[in-house]
Amino acid sequence: MPVFDSRSFMNHEQVVFCSDQATGLKAIIAVHSTALGPATGGTRFWDYAATHSGAPTDVAISRGEQDAVYDVLRLSRGMSYKNAMAGLRLGGGKSVIIGDPKKLGNAELMHAFGRYINRLGGSYYAAEDVGTSPDMLQAAASETDYVCGLEGGEFGTGDPSPHTALGVFEGIKAAVEHRLGKTDLNGIKVAVQGLGHVGQYLVNHLRGAGAEIIVTDIVDANIQAVLDGGAATVVKPDAIHAVDCDVFAPCALGGGINPATIPDIKATIVAGAANNQLEREGVEDEDLRKRGILYAPDYVINAGGIISVESEVYKERLDDAAREAKVLRIGDTLKRIFETSDREERPTGIIANEMAEDIIARASEAKLAAE
Ligand code: NAD
Q1: What is the distance between the alpha carbons of residues 126 and 332, in angstroms, rounded to a whole number?
Q2: Structural domains counted in the chain
Q3: What spacing in Å lies between the alpha carbon of 236 and ligand 1's midpoint?
Q4: Which is more confident, 145 or 54?
Q5: Which of 146, 83, 84, 89 has its CA nearest to residue 113?
Q6: By CB distance 3.0 to 4.6 Å, which of 8, 104, 304, 346 could disulfide with 74?
Q7: pLDDT of residue 56
Q8: Which domain, by its residues, includes 124?
Q9: Contact criterion met (CB below 8 Å) for 280 and 310
Q10: Distance 109 CA to ligand 1 centre (A)
Protein backbone atom coordinates (compact mmCIF):
# COMPACT_ATOMS: atom_id res chain seq x y z
CA MET A 1 0.00 0.00 0.00
CA PRO A 2 1.31 3.52 -0.74
CA VAL A 3 2.82 5.07 2.38
CA PHE A 4 0.55 8.13 2.50
CA ASP A 5 -2.61 5.97 2.27
CA SER A 6 -1.60 3.40 4.87
CA ARG A 7 -3.30 3.20 8.28
CA SER A 8 0.13 3.42 9.90
CA PHE A 9 0.93 6.73 8.23
CA MET A 10 -2.51 8.14 9.04
CA ASN A 11 -2.00 11.89 9.25
CA HIS A 12 1.63 11.92 10.34
CA GLU A 13 2.77 15.52 10.59
CA GLN A 14 6.38 14.82 9.67
CA VAL A 15 8.70 11.90 8.96
CA VAL A 16 12.44 12.54 8.78
CA PHE A 17 15.04 10.21 7.28
CA CYS A 18 18.48 10.83 8.80
CA SER A 19 21.89 9.61 7.72
CA ASP A 20 25.41 10.36 8.86
CA GLN A 21 28.19 8.83 6.78
CA ALA A 22 30.93 9.26 9.38
CA THR A 23 29.18 7.12 12.00
CA GLY A 24 26.95 4.94 9.77
CA LEU A 25 23.80 6.38 11.33
CA LYS A 26 20.60 5.54 9.47
CA ALA A 27 17.53 6.62 11.36
CA ILE A 28 13.90 7.61 10.89
CA ILE A 29 12.11 10.04 13.20
CA ALA A 30 8.32 10.04 12.93
CA VAL A 31 6.20 12.80 14.42
CA HIS A 32 2.59 11.68 14.28
CA SER A 33 0.95 14.51 16.20
CA THR A 34 1.94 17.55 18.22
CA ALA A 35 -1.67 18.58 18.88
CA LEU A 36 -1.43 17.77 22.58
CA GLY A 37 2.22 18.77 23.06
CA PRO A 38 5.71 17.75 21.93
CA ALA A 39 5.67 14.34 20.23
CA THR A 40 7.30 12.00 22.74
CA GLY A 41 8.30 8.37 22.25
CA GLY A 42 11.24 6.01 22.43
CA THR A 43 14.14 5.39 20.10
CA ARG A 44 14.24 1.77 18.90
CA PHE A 45 17.61 0.44 17.70
CA TRP A 46 16.96 -2.66 15.60
CA ASP A 47 18.67 -4.67 12.87
CA TYR A 48 15.71 -4.69 10.49
CA ALA A 49 17.74 -6.15 7.60
CA ALA A 50 18.87 -9.14 9.68
CA THR A 51 15.31 -10.06 10.60
CA HIS A 52 14.40 -10.02 6.89
CA SER A 53 17.30 -11.56 4.87
CA GLY A 54 17.60 -8.36 2.77
CA ALA A 55 16.16 -9.98 -0.36
CA PRO A 56 15.33 -7.52 -3.17
CA THR A 57 11.67 -6.61 -3.48
CA ASP A 58 9.44 -4.91 -6.01
CA VAL A 59 9.44 -1.73 -3.94
CA ALA A 60 11.99 1.04 -4.11
CA ILE A 61 13.34 0.29 -0.64
CA SER A 62 14.70 -2.95 0.79
CA ARG A 63 12.56 -5.22 2.97
CA GLY A 64 14.50 -4.22 6.05
CA GLU A 65 13.93 -0.54 5.37
CA GLN A 66 10.28 -1.24 4.64
CA ASP A 67 9.97 -2.87 8.07
CA ALA A 68 11.70 0.10 9.68
CA VAL A 69 9.27 2.56 8.07
CA TYR A 70 6.27 0.43 9.04
CA ASP A 71 7.54 0.06 12.61
CA VAL A 72 8.27 3.73 13.18
CA LEU A 73 4.93 4.88 11.75
CA ARG A 74 2.85 2.32 13.66
CA LEU A 75 4.69 2.99 16.91
CA SER A 76 4.52 6.75 16.48
CA ARG A 77 0.75 6.72 15.93
CA GLY A 78 0.49 4.38 18.92
CA MET A 79 2.32 6.94 21.07
CA SER A 80 -0.20 9.63 20.06
CA TYR A 81 -3.03 7.36 21.22
CA LYS A 82 -1.22 6.31 24.39
CA ASN A 83 -0.40 9.85 25.43
CA ALA A 84 -3.91 11.09 24.60
CA MET A 85 -5.60 8.35 26.61
CA ALA A 86 -3.28 8.96 29.56
CA GLY A 87 -4.42 12.61 29.61
CA LEU A 88 -0.88 13.87 28.98
CA ARG A 89 0.32 17.14 27.44
CA LEU A 90 2.34 15.09 24.97
CA GLY A 91 1.87 14.28 21.31
CA GLY A 92 3.01 11.08 19.65
CA GLY A 93 6.30 10.29 17.96
CA LYS A 94 8.88 7.56 17.73
CA SER A 95 12.27 7.01 16.13
CA VAL A 96 14.17 4.00 14.87
CA ILE A 97 17.89 3.61 14.30
CA ILE A 98 18.57 0.91 11.73
CA GLY A 99 21.31 -1.61 12.50
CA ASP A 100 22.68 -3.86 15.22
CA PRO A 101 23.06 -1.77 18.41
CA LYS A 102 25.91 -4.04 19.60
CA LYS A 103 27.95 -3.21 16.48
CA LEU A 104 26.87 0.37 15.80
CA GLY A 105 25.56 1.81 19.06
CA ASN A 106 28.61 3.87 20.04
CA ALA A 107 28.66 7.36 21.50
CA GLU A 108 29.62 9.04 18.18
CA LEU A 109 26.58 7.59 16.41
CA MET A 110 24.31 8.66 19.28
CA HIS A 111 25.82 12.17 19.14
CA ALA A 112 24.94 12.31 15.42
CA PHE A 113 21.43 11.10 16.24
CA GLY A 114 21.15 13.73 18.98
CA ARG A 115 22.01 16.44 16.47
CA TYR A 116 19.14 15.26 14.24
CA ILE A 117 16.71 15.33 17.16
CA ASN A 118 17.91 18.83 17.96
CA ARG A 119 17.15 20.03 14.44
CA LEU A 120 13.47 19.24 15.05
CA GLY A 121 13.49 22.07 17.60
CA GLY A 122 11.53 20.28 20.33
CA SER A 123 8.68 18.87 18.24
CA TYR A 124 10.07 15.40 19.11
CA TYR A 125 11.46 14.11 22.44
CA ALA A 126 13.33 10.80 22.38
CA ALA A 127 13.34 8.22 25.18
CA GLU A 128 14.62 4.69 25.74
CA ASP A 129 13.16 1.75 23.82
CA VAL A 130 14.22 -1.69 22.61
CA GLY A 131 17.94 -1.60 21.77
CA THR A 132 18.76 1.75 23.39
CA SER A 133 20.19 2.06 26.90
CA PRO A 134 20.29 4.98 29.36
CA ASP A 135 23.98 5.49 28.40
CA MET A 136 23.11 5.76 24.71
CA LEU A 137 20.36 8.28 25.39
CA GLN A 138 22.72 10.20 27.65
CA ALA A 139 25.17 10.41 24.72
CA ALA A 140 22.41 11.81 22.47
CA ALA A 141 21.51 14.26 25.26
CA SER A 142 24.96 15.83 25.01
CA GLU A 143 23.79 17.30 21.67
CA THR A 144 20.19 18.18 22.52
CA ASP A 145 17.79 18.98 25.35
CA TYR A 146 15.06 16.94 23.67
CA VAL A 147 15.75 13.60 25.33
CA CYS A 148 13.82 12.29 28.35
CA GLY A 149 13.74 9.30 30.70
CA LEU A 150 17.26 10.14 31.85
CA GLU A 151 18.79 9.13 35.17
CA GLY A 152 19.74 11.92 37.58
CA GLY A 153 19.74 15.64 36.79
CA GLU A 154 17.26 18.10 38.18
CA PHE A 155 14.21 16.70 36.38
CA GLY A 156 15.34 13.18 35.38
CA THR A 157 12.61 10.55 35.92
CA GLY A 158 14.83 7.47 35.43
CA ASP A 159 13.64 3.93 34.78
CA PRO A 160 9.98 3.99 33.71
CA SER A 161 9.44 0.25 34.37
CA PRO A 162 8.21 0.44 38.00
CA HIS A 163 5.60 3.01 36.95
CA THR A 164 4.55 0.86 33.99
CA ALA A 165 4.19 -2.14 36.30
CA LEU A 166 2.09 -0.15 38.79
CA GLY A 167 -0.24 0.94 35.97
CA VAL A 168 -0.58 -2.64 34.71
CA PHE A 169 -1.33 -3.83 38.25
CA GLU A 170 -4.02 -1.16 38.60
CA GLY A 171 -5.40 -2.12 35.17
CA ILE A 172 -5.59 -5.80 36.16
CA LYS A 173 -7.53 -4.81 39.29
CA ALA A 174 -9.97 -2.75 37.17
CA ALA A 175 -10.44 -5.65 34.73
CA VAL A 176 -10.97 -8.18 37.53
CA GLU A 177 -13.56 -5.94 39.14
CA HIS A 178 -15.35 -5.39 35.83
CA ARG A 179 -15.35 -8.98 34.62
CA LEU A 180 -15.30 -11.02 37.84
CA GLY A 181 -16.98 -8.58 40.23
CA LYS A 182 -14.12 -8.89 42.73
CA THR A 183 -12.56 -5.80 44.28
CA ASP A 184 -9.29 -7.47 45.29
CA LEU A 185 -6.88 -9.95 43.73
CA ASN A 186 -6.73 -12.39 46.62
CA GLY A 187 -6.67 -15.90 45.10
CA ILE A 188 -6.89 -14.58 41.53
CA LYS A 189 -4.65 -16.61 39.21
CA VAL A 190 -2.41 -14.50 36.97
CA ALA A 191 -0.13 -15.90 34.24
CA VAL A 192 2.77 -13.52 33.56
CA GLN A 193 4.59 -13.96 30.23
CA GLY A 194 8.01 -12.30 30.41
CA LEU A 195 9.90 -11.48 33.61
CA GLY A 196 12.00 -8.53 32.49
CA HIS A 197 11.95 -5.00 33.87
CA VAL A 198 8.16 -4.69 34.01
CA GLY A 199 7.28 -8.37 34.61
CA GLN A 200 9.33 -8.64 37.79
CA TYR A 201 7.87 -5.48 39.34
CA LEU A 202 4.39 -6.67 38.36
CA VAL A 203 4.91 -10.04 40.06
CA ASN A 204 5.84 -8.22 43.27
CA HIS A 205 2.61 -6.19 43.19
CA LEU A 206 0.53 -9.28 42.45
CA ARG A 207 2.15 -11.23 45.28
CA GLY A 208 1.50 -8.37 47.67
CA ALA A 209 -2.19 -8.52 46.70
CA GLY A 210 -2.45 -12.27 47.35
CA ALA A 211 -2.69 -13.38 43.71
CA GLU A 212 -1.53 -16.84 42.61
CA ILE A 213 1.33 -16.47 40.12
CA ILE A 214 2.19 -18.58 37.09
CA VAL A 215 5.26 -17.39 35.17
CA THR A 216 7.51 -18.00 32.22
CA ASP A 217 10.55 -16.48 30.50
CA ILE A 218 13.09 -17.62 27.93
CA VAL A 219 15.91 -16.54 30.29
CA ASP A 220 16.36 -18.89 33.28
CA ALA A 221 18.00 -16.20 35.43
CA ASN A 222 14.86 -14.05 35.18
CA ILE A 223 12.70 -16.96 36.38
CA GLN A 224 15.13 -17.61 39.22
CA ALA A 225 14.98 -13.95 40.27
CA VAL A 226 11.20 -14.26 40.62
CA LEU A 227 11.43 -17.59 42.50
CA ASP A 228 13.96 -16.02 44.89
CA GLY A 229 11.23 -13.55 45.87
CA GLY A 230 8.53 -16.14 46.66
CA ALA A 231 6.39 -18.97 45.32
CA ALA A 232 5.32 -19.18 41.67
CA THR A 233 4.39 -21.97 39.27
CA VAL A 234 6.75 -22.05 36.29
CA VAL A 235 5.59 -23.22 32.85
CA LYS A 236 7.31 -23.45 29.45
CA PRO A 237 7.23 -20.28 27.29
CA ASP A 238 4.97 -21.88 24.67
CA ALA A 239 2.42 -22.95 27.32
CA ILE A 240 1.80 -19.70 29.22
CA HIS A 241 -1.04 -18.36 27.05
CA ALA A 242 -2.99 -21.61 27.51
CA VAL A 243 -2.67 -21.82 31.31
CA ASP A 244 -5.88 -22.28 33.31
CA CYS A 245 -6.05 -18.88 35.05
CA ASP A 246 -8.12 -15.72 35.46
CA VAL A 247 -5.71 -13.20 33.92
CA PHE A 248 -3.16 -13.64 31.14
CA ALA A 249 -0.59 -10.82 31.38
CA PRO A 250 1.66 -10.59 28.28
CA CYS A 251 4.81 -8.74 29.39
CA ALA A 252 7.29 -9.95 26.75
CA LEU A 253 7.04 -9.11 23.06
CA GLY A 254 4.12 -8.01 20.88
CA GLY A 255 1.96 -10.11 18.55
CA GLY A 256 1.21 -12.81 21.17
CA ILE A 257 -2.56 -12.53 20.72
CA ASN A 258 -3.18 -14.04 17.29
CA PRO A 259 -5.39 -16.62 15.57
CA ALA A 260 -3.07 -19.44 16.70
CA THR A 261 -3.12 -18.52 20.41
CA ILE A 262 -6.67 -17.18 20.91
CA PRO A 263 -8.46 -20.58 20.82
CA ASP A 264 -6.17 -21.85 23.63
CA ILE A 265 -6.61 -18.90 26.00
CA LYS A 266 -8.51 -20.00 29.12
CA ALA A 267 -8.18 -16.72 31.03
CA THR A 268 -11.22 -14.44 31.11
CA ILE A 269 -8.97 -11.35 31.04
CA VAL A 270 -5.96 -10.38 28.92
CA ALA A 271 -4.13 -7.49 30.56
CA GLY A 272 -0.38 -6.94 30.37
CA ALA A 273 2.44 -4.54 29.56
CA ALA A 274 3.60 -5.69 26.12
CA ASN A 275 3.19 -3.23 23.26
CA ASN A 276 1.22 -4.31 20.18
CA GLN A 277 -0.18 -7.47 21.77
CA LEU A 278 -2.76 -7.94 19.02
CA GLU A 279 -1.56 -9.09 15.63
CA ARG A 280 -4.25 -6.91 14.00
CA GLU A 281 -6.27 -4.20 15.78
CA GLY A 282 -10.02 -4.69 15.52
CA VAL A 283 -9.63 -8.37 14.61
CA GLU A 284 -8.10 -10.18 17.59
CA ASP A 285 -9.81 -7.91 20.13
CA GLU A 286 -13.16 -8.72 18.48
CA ASP A 287 -12.30 -12.45 18.57
CA LEU A 288 -11.48 -12.15 22.28
CA ARG A 289 -14.73 -10.27 22.93
CA LYS A 290 -16.78 -12.94 21.16
CA ARG A 291 -15.11 -15.57 23.34
CA GLY A 292 -16.05 -13.61 26.47
CA ILE A 293 -12.45 -12.54 27.19
CA LEU A 294 -11.95 -8.96 28.38
CA TYR A 295 -8.96 -7.30 26.69
CA ALA A 296 -7.32 -4.27 28.32
CA PRO A 297 -5.95 -2.23 25.36
CA ASP A 298 -2.16 -2.39 25.65
CA TYR A 299 -1.35 1.27 25.13
CA VAL A 300 -3.86 2.27 27.81
CA ILE A 301 -2.76 -0.19 30.51
CA ASN A 302 1.00 0.23 29.88
CA ALA A 303 1.08 4.06 29.98
CA GLY A 304 2.58 4.31 33.50
CA GLY A 305 6.10 4.83 32.17
CA ILE A 306 5.25 7.70 29.83
CA ILE A 307 3.02 9.24 32.52
CA SER A 308 6.08 9.35 34.75
CA VAL A 309 8.18 10.99 32.00
CA GLU A 310 5.83 13.90 31.23
CA SER A 311 7.17 16.08 34.06
CA GLU A 312 10.70 15.75 32.64
CA VAL A 313 9.62 17.10 29.24
CA TYR A 314 8.01 20.10 30.95
CA LYS A 315 10.87 20.47 33.44
CA GLU A 316 8.50 20.24 36.39
CA ARG A 317 9.15 18.77 39.80
CA LEU A 318 6.62 16.07 40.69
CA ASP A 319 6.72 14.21 44.00
CA ASP A 320 6.24 10.44 44.16
CA ALA A 321 2.67 10.68 45.46
CA ALA A 322 1.55 12.99 42.63
CA ARG A 323 3.23 10.74 40.05
CA GLU A 324 1.59 7.65 41.51
CA ALA A 325 -1.84 9.31 41.57
CA LYS A 326 -1.53 10.03 37.84
CA VAL A 327 -0.57 6.41 37.09
CA LEU A 328 -3.46 5.05 39.16
CA ARG A 329 -5.94 6.88 36.89
CA ILE A 330 -5.28 4.15 34.32
CA GLY A 331 -7.81 1.98 36.17
CA ASP A 332 -10.61 4.54 35.69
CA THR A 333 -9.78 5.01 32.00
CA LEU A 334 -9.98 1.27 31.46
CA LYS A 335 -13.32 1.07 33.27
CA ARG A 336 -14.76 3.65 30.86
CA ILE A 337 -13.50 1.62 27.89
CA PHE A 338 -14.88 -1.65 29.30
CA GLU A 339 -18.30 -0.12 29.99
CA THR A 340 -18.54 1.43 26.50
CA SER A 341 -17.45 -1.84 24.92
CA ASP A 342 -20.17 -3.77 26.80
CA ARG A 343 -22.84 -1.19 25.98
CA GLU A 344 -21.99 -0.97 22.29
CA GLU A 345 -20.96 -4.64 21.91
CA ARG A 346 -17.75 -3.61 20.15
CA PRO A 347 -14.10 -4.50 20.87
CA THR A 348 -12.23 -2.60 23.57
CA GLY A 349 -9.30 -1.87 21.22
CA ILE A 350 -11.53 -0.04 18.76
CA ILE A 351 -13.32 1.86 21.53
CA ALA A 352 -9.94 3.04 22.88
CA ASN A 353 -8.77 4.09 19.38
CA GLU A 354 -11.92 6.13 18.85
CA MET A 355 -11.61 7.84 22.23
CA ALA A 356 -7.95 8.70 21.51
CA GLU A 357 -8.71 9.97 17.99
CA ASP A 358 -11.47 12.17 19.42
CA ILE A 359 -9.12 13.70 22.04
CA ILE A 360 -6.46 14.39 19.37
CA ALA A 361 -8.98 15.86 16.90
CA ARG A 362 -10.37 18.23 19.55
CA ALA A 363 -6.85 19.32 20.55
CA SER A 364 -5.95 19.93 16.87
CA GLU A 365 -9.04 22.11 16.42
CA ALA A 366 -8.26 24.08 19.58
CA LYS A 367 -4.66 24.56 18.44
CA LEU A 368 -5.75 25.78 15.01
CA ALA A 369 -8.29 28.14 16.52
CA ALA A 370 -5.61 29.61 18.82
CA GLU A 371 -3.18 30.26 15.95
P1 NAD B 1 12.39 -6.53 28.97
O2 NAD B 1 13.14 -6.74 27.72
O3 NAD B 1 13.08 -6.09 30.21
O4 NAD B 1 11.59 -7.87 29.36
C5 NAD B 1 11.00 -8.73 28.43
C6 NAD B 1 11.14 -10.13 28.99
O7 NAD B 1 10.43 -11.04 28.15
C8 NAD B 1 12.60 -10.62 29.06
O9 NAD B 1 12.86 -11.15 30.35
C10 NAD B 1 12.65 -11.70 27.98
O11 NAD B 1 13.59 -12.72 28.30
C12 NAD B 1 11.23 -12.20 27.99
N13 NAD B 1 10.80 -12.89 26.78
C14 NAD B 1 11.09 -12.58 25.50
N15 NAD B 1 10.50 -13.44 24.66
C16 NAD B 1 9.78 -14.28 25.44
C17 NAD B 1 8.93 -15.39 25.17
N18 NAD B 1 8.68 -15.80 23.93
N19 NAD B 1 8.34 -16.01 26.20
C20 NAD B 1 8.59 -15.61 27.48
N21 NAD B 1 9.38 -14.59 27.80
C22 NAD B 1 9.97 -13.92 26.79
O23 NAD B 1 11.21 -5.52 28.60
P24 NAD B 1 10.30 -4.68 29.60
O25 NAD B 1 10.86 -3.33 29.73
O26 NAD B 1 10.00 -5.49 30.82
O27 NAD B 1 8.97 -4.55 28.73
C28 NAD B 1 8.09 -5.64 28.56
C29 NAD B 1 7.04 -5.29 27.51
O30 NAD B 1 6.32 -4.14 27.94
C31 NAD B 1 7.63 -4.91 26.13
O32 NAD B 1 6.73 -5.33 25.13
C33 NAD B 1 7.69 -3.40 26.18
O34 NAD B 1 7.63 -2.84 24.88
C35 NAD B 1 6.44 -3.09 26.97
N36 NAD B 1 6.50 -1.82 27.67
C37 NAD B 1 7.48 -1.57 28.57
C38 NAD B 1 7.52 -0.34 29.23
C39 NAD B 1 8.57 -0.05 30.27
O40 NAD B 1 8.40 0.90 31.02
N41 NAD B 1 9.64 -0.82 30.35
C42 NAD B 1 6.54 0.63 28.97
C43 NAD B 1 5.53 0.34 28.06
C44 NAD B 1 5.52 -0.89 27.41
Answers
A1: 28
A2: 2
A3: 16
A4: 145
A5: 146
A6: 8
A7: 46
A8: 14-71+95-141
A9: no
A10: 25
The predicted model scores a pTM of 0.92
Asked if residue 285 belongs to a domain, the reply is yes
Residue of minimum CA distance from atom 40 in ligand 1: 161
pLDDT in the model for residue 57? 46
Whether residue 8 lies inside any domain: the answer is no
| 63 confidence band (pLDDT: 50, 70, 90) | confident
Whether residue 307 has its Cβ less than 6 Å from ligand 1: no
Does 94 participate in catalysis according to the annotation? yes
Catalytic residue (one of 26, 94, 173, 326) = 94
Alpha carbon distance 163, 144 (integer Å)? 26
Ligand 1 atom with least separation from CA of 302: 43
- Shared domain for 283 and 169, answered yes or no, is yes
Q: How far is the CA of 363 from the centre of ligand 1 (A)?
A: 32
pLDDT in tens, 45-61: 999 988 765 544 444 56
**What is the chain's Cα-based Rg?**
20
Q: Which of 300, 360, 358, 315 is nearest to 36 (CA)?
A: 360
CATH number at residue 255: 3.40.50.720
- Per-chain mean pLDDT for the chain: 93
Distance from the CA of 25 to the center of ligand 1, in angstroms?
26
**5-14, 162-171, 336-345, range with the lowest pLDDT:** 5-14
CATH at 59: 3.40.50.10860
Q: 111 pLDDT band (50/70/90 cuts)?
A: very high
Ligand 1 touching residue 275 (CB < 6 A)? yes
CB of 33 shorter than 6 A to ligand 1: no
